[in-house]
Amino acid sequence: MTGSGPNQNSALLFGYSGRIGRAKYWMGLAVALALAAGALGFGAMAMSPTGGSSVVLLGIPLVILFGWIYSAVALKRLRDAGVSRWPRLLLVLSPFVWVTLTAELINYLGTVIAVVLIGLFAIPGLLPSKPASA
Fold this sequence. Notes:
The chain contains 5 helices and no strands. By secondary structure, the chain is mostly helical.
């Protein structure tokens, strides 16, 4: 993926084919996390005592976009790092599984959950690239 422009950025964020380097992974992850923060903001507004429960519906598309963008950039980055198919799938799904399994424990283990989640997001960005096989 060389060059830049609207088509290159949409391919980076939404396409599942190809390979990307570390810098593009971190850029895509930043976009995905910004969407997740927006979704959390809508969720917080919905929980306010003044009402706004229908505002949570605005966060649903943001959560879906977060999942799509994160999985797209993580799969391409792990492919670039030479990770085989099944470990690649496990590494991409692990943050979603981790959040789902630990949602009830967030009040007790919030820091531990956050540190593990940051580590799961960082793994693809820290792996070195491997040359493409012909």
